[in-house]
Amino acid sequence: MRIAFLSIGRHIHTERWIQWFAKRGHECHLLTVQPGDIEGVEVHDIRSIARPKPLHYAISLIKVKSILKNINPDILNTHFLTGYGYWGHFSGIHPNVLTVWGDDVYVTPYENKLKRKLAETAMKSCDALTGDSVDILQQSVRDLGTNPDRAYRVLWGVDFSVFKPLDASSWRKKHGYSENDIIYFSPRSFTQPYYNIDVVIEAAKIVKSKEPRARFLFAGYEGDPAPFWKMATEAGISDVSKFMGRIPHSDFATVLAGSDVFISVPSVDATAVSLLEAMSCSSAIIVSDLPSSVEWVENGISAKVVPPENVETLAVAMLQYADDPASRTAFGAAAMHYAHKVAGFDANMEYVNKIFSALVEEDECWPEEVLLANCRSSDVD
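^ thats the sequence. predicted structure below, dont judge the formating
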Protein backbone atom coordinates (compact mmCIF):
# COMPACT_ATOMS: atom_id res chain seq x y z
CA MET A 1 0.00 0.00 0.00
CA ARG A 2 0.95 3.61 -0.50
CA ILE A 3 0.02 5.24 2.81
CA ALA A 4 -0.02 8.94 3.65
CA PHE A 5 -0.02 10.04 7.27
CA LEU A 6 -0.93 13.46 8.64
CA SER A 7 0.49 13.58 12.15
CA ILE A 8 2.64 15.24 14.78
CA GLY A 9 6.27 14.92 13.73
CA ARG A 10 9.21 14.11 15.99
CA HIS A 11 6.90 12.23 18.34
CA ILE A 12 7.45 8.67 19.52
CA HIS A 13 3.81 7.68 18.88
CA THR A 14 3.97 8.87 15.28
CA GLU A 15 7.36 7.31 14.60
CA ARG A 16 6.53 3.88 16.03
CA TRP A 17 3.16 3.76 14.23
CA ILE A 18 4.45 4.73 10.79
CA GLN A 19 7.64 2.67 10.97
CA TRP A 20 5.58 -0.44 11.68
CA PHE A 21 4.12 -0.10 8.18
CA ALA A 22 7.38 1.03 6.57
CA LYS A 23 9.20 -2.03 7.90
CA ARG A 24 6.59 -4.23 6.24
CA GLY A 25 7.33 -2.83 2.82
CA HIS A 26 4.61 -0.22 2.47
CA GLU A 27 5.39 3.12 0.88
CA CYS A 28 4.92 5.62 3.71
CA HIS A 29 4.70 9.40 3.62
CA LEU A 30 4.36 11.75 6.61
CA LEU A 31 2.93 15.25 6.19
CA THR A 32 3.68 17.35 9.25
CA VAL A 33 4.48 20.80 10.65
CA GLN A 34 7.20 19.20 12.82
CA PRO A 35 9.41 17.58 10.18
CA GLY A 36 12.28 15.31 11.12
CA ASP A 37 13.95 12.25 9.63
CA ILE A 38 12.20 8.89 10.06
CA GLU A 39 13.94 5.85 8.66
CA GLY A 40 12.08 4.38 5.69
CA VAL A 41 9.56 7.26 5.54
CA GLU A 42 9.39 10.24 3.20
CA VAL A 43 8.65 13.30 5.35
CA HIS A 44 6.90 16.34 3.83
CA ASP A 45 7.04 19.79 5.43
CA ILE A 46 3.64 21.52 5.45
CA ARG A 47 4.64 24.44 7.68
CA SER A 48 3.52 27.98 6.97
CA ILE A 49 4.86 31.15 8.58
CA ALA A 50 1.77 33.12 7.62
CA ARG A 51 -0.19 35.05 10.19
CA PRO A 52 -2.90 35.31 11.41
CA LYS A 53 -3.67 31.71 12.34
CA PRO A 54 -6.55 31.16 9.86
CA LEU A 55 -4.23 32.14 7.00
CA HIS A 56 -1.56 29.84 8.39
CA TYR A 57 -4.00 26.91 8.34
CA ALA A 58 -5.22 27.79 4.85
CA ILE A 59 -1.72 27.87 3.35
CA SER A 60 -0.81 24.59 5.04
CA LEU A 61 -3.99 23.06 3.63
CA ILE A 62 -2.95 24.13 0.13
CA LYS A 63 0.37 22.35 0.69
CA VAL A 64 -1.41 19.26 2.03
CA LYS A 65 -3.70 19.01 -0.98
CA SER A 66 -0.84 19.52 -3.44
CA ILE A 67 1.41 16.92 -1.80
CA LEU A 68 -1.39 14.37 -1.50
CA LYS A 69 -2.30 14.87 -5.15
CA ASN A 70 1.29 14.01 -6.11
CA ILE A 71 1.50 11.04 -3.73
CA ASN A 72 -1.91 9.67 -4.75
CA PRO A 73 -2.13 7.46 -1.62
CA ASP A 74 -4.21 4.33 -1.36
CA ILE A 75 -5.24 5.51 2.12
CA LEU A 76 -4.80 8.50 4.41
CA ASN A 77 -4.30 8.05 8.15
CA THR A 78 -4.89 11.33 9.99
CA HIS A 79 -3.63 11.58 13.56
CA PHE A 80 -4.98 14.10 16.07
CA LEU A 81 -8.46 15.46 15.48
CA THR A 82 -7.72 19.16 15.79
CA GLY A 83 -5.45 20.71 13.18
CA TYR A 84 -4.33 17.59 11.34
CA GLY A 85 -7.85 16.21 11.44
CA TYR A 86 -9.19 19.36 9.83
CA TRP A 87 -6.57 19.17 7.07
CA GLY A 88 -7.38 15.51 6.55
CA HIS A 89 -11.06 16.27 6.07
CA PHE A 90 -10.58 19.25 3.76
CA SER A 91 -8.01 17.39 1.69
CA GLY A 92 -10.88 15.35 0.30
CA ILE A 93 -8.78 12.16 0.33
CA HIS A 94 -10.61 8.88 0.98
CA PRO A 95 -10.42 6.43 2.52
CA ASN A 96 -9.34 8.46 5.54
CA VAL A 97 -8.78 6.77 8.89
CA LEU A 98 -8.77 9.21 11.81
CA THR A 99 -6.76 8.38 14.94
CA VAL A 100 -7.57 10.45 18.03
CA TRP A 101 -5.06 11.02 20.81
CA GLY A 102 -6.63 12.64 23.89
CA ASP A 103 -7.27 16.32 24.49
CA ASP A 104 -8.13 16.66 20.80
CA VAL A 105 -11.39 14.96 21.81
CA TYR A 106 -11.65 15.75 25.51
CA VAL A 107 -10.72 19.46 25.52
CA THR A 108 -10.23 21.39 22.27
CA PRO A 109 -13.68 20.87 20.63
CA TYR A 110 -15.32 22.55 23.61
CA GLU A 111 -13.21 25.71 23.55
CA ASN A 112 -15.44 27.52 21.06
CA LYS A 113 -18.20 26.94 18.52
CA LEU A 114 -15.87 26.94 15.50
CA LYS A 115 -13.63 24.24 16.95
CA ARG A 116 -16.69 22.19 17.85
CA LYS A 117 -18.04 22.47 14.31
CA LEU A 118 -14.70 21.57 12.72
CA ALA A 119 -14.30 18.58 15.06
CA GLU A 120 -17.78 17.29 14.26
CA THR A 121 -17.19 17.72 10.54
CA ALA A 122 -13.90 15.79 10.60
CA MET A 123 -15.39 13.05 12.78
CA LYS A 124 -18.40 12.51 10.56
CA SER A 125 -16.38 12.40 7.35
CA CYS A 126 -13.73 9.85 8.31
CA ASP A 127 -14.14 6.30 7.02
CA ALA A 128 -12.97 4.73 10.29
CA LEU A 129 -11.89 5.95 13.70
CA THR A 130 -9.31 4.52 16.08
CA GLY A 131 -8.83 5.56 19.70
CA ASP A 132 -7.04 4.04 22.64
CA SER A 133 -9.93 3.56 25.06
CA VAL A 134 -13.64 2.82 25.09
CA ASP A 135 -14.19 6.18 26.75
CA ILE A 136 -12.59 8.28 24.01
CA LEU A 137 -14.52 6.37 21.35
CA GLN A 138 -17.79 6.79 23.24
CA GLN A 139 -17.24 10.52 23.55
CA SER A 140 -16.38 10.72 19.85
CA VAL A 141 -19.66 9.01 19.02
CA ARG A 142 -21.85 10.68 21.63
CA ASP A 143 -20.64 14.26 21.37
CA LEU A 144 -18.95 14.58 17.99
CA GLY A 145 -21.00 12.33 15.74
CA THR A 146 -18.60 9.67 14.52
CA ASN A 147 -19.99 6.38 13.22
CA PRO A 148 -19.99 3.76 16.04
CA ASP A 149 -19.95 0.96 13.49
CA ARG A 150 -16.50 2.04 12.34
CA ALA A 151 -14.97 3.01 15.70
CA TYR A 152 -12.15 0.73 16.90
CA ARG A 153 -10.17 0.55 20.13
CA VAL A 154 -6.50 0.42 19.20
CA LEU A 155 -3.76 0.99 21.77
CA TRP A 156 -0.42 2.59 21.05
CA GLY A 157 0.94 -0.64 22.44
CA VAL A 158 3.96 -1.92 24.33
CA ASP A 159 7.06 -3.79 23.21
CA PHE A 160 7.15 -6.57 25.78
CA SER A 161 10.74 -7.45 24.88
CA VAL A 162 11.75 -4.05 26.28
CA PHE A 163 9.12 -3.31 28.91
CA LYS A 164 9.37 -6.14 31.39
CA PRO A 165 10.63 -6.67 34.95
CA LEU A 166 14.34 -5.83 35.01
CA ASP A 167 17.19 -5.75 37.49
CA ALA A 168 17.69 -1.98 37.84
CA SER A 169 19.95 -2.06 40.90
CA SER A 170 22.83 -0.50 38.95
CA TRP A 171 20.55 2.31 37.77
CA ARG A 172 19.48 3.00 41.35
CA LYS A 173 23.08 3.06 42.52
CA LYS A 174 24.15 5.32 39.66
CA HIS A 175 21.47 7.87 40.61
CA GLY A 176 22.25 7.77 44.30
CA TYR A 177 19.35 5.65 45.53
CA SER A 178 19.83 3.02 48.22
CA GLU A 179 18.12 -0.37 48.35
CA ASN A 180 15.86 0.90 51.13
CA ASP A 181 14.71 4.06 49.35
CA ILE A 182 11.14 4.06 48.04
CA ILE A 183 11.08 5.87 44.69
CA TYR A 184 7.81 7.43 43.55
CA PHE A 185 7.96 8.11 39.81
CA SER A 186 5.75 10.70 38.06
CA PRO A 187 6.51 10.79 34.30
CA ARG A 188 3.77 13.09 33.02
CA SER A 189 4.33 16.12 30.81
CA PHE A 190 5.04 19.53 32.31
CA THR A 191 2.93 21.27 29.67
CA GLN A 192 -0.66 21.03 30.87
CA PRO A 193 -2.16 21.82 34.28
CA TYR A 194 -4.53 18.86 34.00
CA TYR A 195 -1.61 16.46 34.53
CA ASN A 196 -1.67 17.62 38.18
CA ILE A 197 2.06 17.59 38.85
CA ASP A 198 1.35 20.17 41.56
CA VAL A 199 -0.96 17.69 43.28
CA VAL A 200 1.79 15.05 43.28
CA ILE A 201 4.21 17.56 44.81
CA GLU A 202 1.79 18.47 47.59
CA ALA A 203 1.13 14.78 48.31
CA ALA A 204 4.88 14.17 48.35
CA LYS A 205 5.21 16.83 51.04
CA ILE A 206 2.86 14.82 53.26
CA VAL A 207 4.59 11.54 52.45
CA LYS A 208 8.04 12.93 53.24
CA SER A 209 6.87 14.04 56.69
CA LYS A 210 5.82 10.46 57.51
CA GLU A 211 8.14 8.25 55.46
CA PRO A 212 11.89 9.00 55.65
CA ARG A 213 12.69 6.49 52.89
CA ALA A 214 10.54 8.35 50.33
CA ARG A 215 12.20 9.71 47.20
CA PHE A 216 10.42 11.51 44.36
CA LEU A 217 11.35 11.36 40.69
CA PHE A 218 9.69 13.60 38.09
CA ALA A 219 10.16 13.40 34.33
CA GLY A 220 8.33 15.16 31.53
CA TYR A 221 8.68 14.53 27.81
CA GLU A 222 7.52 18.10 27.10
CA GLY A 223 7.47 21.45 28.84
CA ASP A 224 9.53 23.40 31.35
CA PRO A 225 10.15 21.72 34.73
CA ALA A 226 11.40 24.94 36.36
CA PRO A 227 8.02 26.04 37.83
CA PHE A 228 7.54 22.58 39.33
CA TRP A 229 11.06 22.55 40.78
CA LYS A 230 10.15 25.83 42.44
CA MET A 231 6.99 24.21 43.84
CA ALA A 232 9.04 21.28 45.13
CA THR A 233 11.49 23.65 46.79
CA GLU A 234 8.68 25.60 48.44
CA ALA A 235 7.09 22.31 49.57
CA GLY A 236 10.34 21.29 51.24
CA ILE A 237 10.91 18.14 49.16
CA SER A 238 13.73 19.33 46.89
CA ASP A 239 16.34 17.44 48.93
CA VAL A 240 14.61 14.13 48.16
CA SER A 241 13.47 14.94 44.61
CA LYS A 242 14.96 14.74 41.13
CA PHE A 243 13.65 16.28 37.91
CA MET A 244 15.02 14.35 34.94
CA GLY A 245 13.32 16.15 32.06
CA ARG A 246 12.77 13.99 29.01
CA ILE A 247 13.81 10.34 29.39
CA PRO A 248 14.72 8.63 26.09
CA HIS A 249 12.18 5.93 25.31
CA SER A 250 15.00 3.40 25.17
CA ASP A 251 15.77 4.14 28.84
CA PHE A 252 12.22 4.39 30.13
CA ALA A 253 11.85 0.70 31.00
CA THR A 254 14.94 0.87 33.20
CA VAL A 255 13.59 3.88 35.08
CA LEU A 256 10.25 2.12 35.60
CA ALA A 257 12.02 -0.99 36.87
CA GLY A 258 14.22 1.09 39.16
CA SER A 259 11.24 2.91 40.68
CA ASP A 260 8.94 1.45 43.31
CA VAL A 261 5.67 3.26 42.57
CA PHE A 262 4.36 4.74 39.30
CA ILE A 263 2.04 7.76 39.63
CA SER A 264 -0.26 9.18 36.94
CA VAL A 265 -3.17 11.27 38.23
CA PRO A 266 -4.39 13.62 35.47
CA SER A 267 -7.84 15.17 35.42
CA VAL A 268 -8.17 14.60 31.65
CA ASP A 269 -6.46 11.92 29.60
CA ALA A 270 -6.75 9.16 27.07
CA THR A 271 -4.99 5.88 27.82
CA ALA A 272 -1.47 6.84 28.86
CA VAL A 273 1.14 4.71 27.12
CA SER A 274 3.32 5.16 30.18
CA LEU A 275 0.60 3.42 32.22
CA LEU A 276 0.61 0.42 29.89
CA GLU A 277 4.40 0.35 30.00
CA ALA A 278 4.38 0.52 33.81
CA MET A 279 1.90 -2.36 33.88
CA SER A 280 4.20 -4.36 31.61
CA CYS A 281 7.12 -3.74 33.97
CA SER A 282 5.09 -5.03 36.91
CA SER A 283 5.13 -1.63 38.61
CA ALA A 284 3.04 -0.72 41.63
CA ILE A 285 0.62 1.83 40.18
CA ILE A 286 -1.40 4.81 41.39
CA VAL A 287 -3.77 6.32 38.82
CA SER A 288 -6.67 8.75 38.82
CA ASP A 289 -10.17 7.36 38.41
CA LEU A 290 -10.57 8.32 34.75
CA PRO A 291 -12.43 5.82 32.55
CA SER A 292 -9.37 5.61 30.28
CA SER A 293 -7.29 4.42 33.24
CA VAL A 294 -9.68 2.12 35.08
CA GLU A 295 -10.36 0.39 31.78
CA TRP A 296 -6.96 -1.26 32.30
CA VAL A 297 -6.53 -1.58 36.06
CA GLU A 298 -8.77 -2.52 38.98
CA ASN A 299 -8.63 -0.70 42.28
CA GLY A 300 -7.28 -2.92 45.04
CA ILE A 301 -6.23 -5.65 42.60
CA SER A 302 -3.77 -4.22 40.11
CA ALA A 303 -3.52 -0.56 41.17
CA LYS A 304 -4.59 2.05 43.66
CA VAL A 305 -7.16 4.38 42.09
CA VAL A 306 -7.64 7.90 43.46
CA PRO A 307 -9.57 11.06 42.57
CA PRO A 308 -7.40 13.23 40.30
CA GLU A 309 -7.07 16.38 42.41
CA ASN A 310 -7.21 15.03 45.96
CA VAL A 311 -3.86 15.54 47.67
CA GLU A 312 -4.76 13.69 50.86
CA THR A 313 -6.09 10.58 49.11
CA LEU A 314 -3.03 10.40 46.89
CA ALA A 315 -0.73 10.71 49.90
CA VAL A 316 -2.59 7.91 51.68
CA ALA A 317 -2.16 5.61 48.64
CA MET A 318 1.55 6.44 48.45
CA LEU A 319 2.04 5.68 52.14
CA GLN A 320 0.08 2.43 51.92
CA TYR A 321 2.50 1.17 49.27
CA ALA A 322 5.44 2.21 51.48
CA ASP A 323 4.04 0.24 54.41
CA ASP A 324 3.17 -2.87 52.41
CA PRO A 325 5.85 -4.03 49.94
CA ALA A 326 3.93 -7.29 49.40
CA SER A 327 1.06 -5.31 47.90
CA ARG A 328 3.47 -3.59 45.51
CA THR A 329 4.56 -6.99 44.27
CA ALA A 330 1.04 -8.45 44.04
CA PHE A 331 -0.51 -5.42 42.35
CA GLY A 332 2.37 -5.22 39.89
CA ALA A 333 2.01 -8.88 38.92
CA ALA A 334 -1.73 -8.48 38.32
CA ALA A 335 -1.16 -5.38 36.19
CA MET A 336 1.49 -7.13 34.09
CA HIS A 337 -0.80 -10.11 33.52
CA TYR A 338 -3.52 -7.91 32.06
CA ALA A 339 -1.11 -5.82 30.00
CA HIS A 340 0.07 -8.97 28.25
CA LYS A 341 -3.53 -9.76 27.30
CA VAL A 342 -4.33 -6.45 25.57
CA ALA A 343 -1.39 -4.09 25.16
CA GLY A 344 1.06 -5.73 22.73
CA PHE A 345 2.31 -3.26 20.12
CA ASP A 346 2.36 -5.67 17.18
CA ALA A 347 -1.07 -7.08 18.02
CA ASN A 348 -2.61 -3.61 18.09
CA MET A 349 -0.91 -2.54 14.88
CA GLU A 350 -2.31 -5.64 13.19
CA TYR A 351 -5.77 -4.23 13.98
CA VAL A 352 -4.83 -1.03 12.15
CA ASN A 353 -3.50 -3.06 9.24
CA LYS A 354 -6.82 -4.91 9.04
CA ILE A 355 -8.72 -1.60 8.97
CA PHE A 356 -6.49 -0.26 6.19
CA SER A 357 -6.82 -3.48 4.18
CA ALA A 358 -10.60 -3.59 4.60
CA LEU A 359 -10.90 -0.07 3.21
CA VAL A 360 -8.34 -0.38 0.41
CA GLU A 361 -9.09 -3.93 -0.72
CA GLU A 362 -12.78 -3.88 0.22
CA ASP A 363 -12.43 -7.37 1.68
CA GLU A 364 -14.71 -6.73 4.70
CA CYS A 365 -12.15 -8.33 7.02
CA TRP A 366 -12.56 -5.76 9.77
CA PRO A 367 -11.11 -6.33 13.28
CA GLU A 368 -14.48 -6.95 14.91
CA GLU A 369 -12.88 -7.92 18.23
CA VAL A 370 -11.91 -4.28 18.86
CA LEU A 371 -15.05 -2.67 17.43
CA LEU A 372 -16.51 -0.29 20.00
CA ALA A 373 -19.66 -2.37 20.41
CA ASN A 374 -17.57 -5.42 21.29
CA CYS A 375 -15.35 -3.69 23.86
CA ARG A 376 -16.36 -3.04 27.44
CA SER A 377 -14.97 -0.23 29.58
CA SER A 378 -14.89 -2.60 32.56
CA ASP A 379 -13.24 -5.62 30.93
CA VAL A 380 -10.37 -5.82 33.40
CA ASP A 381 -10.19 -9.29 34.92
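The first strand starts at residue 2 and ends at 6.
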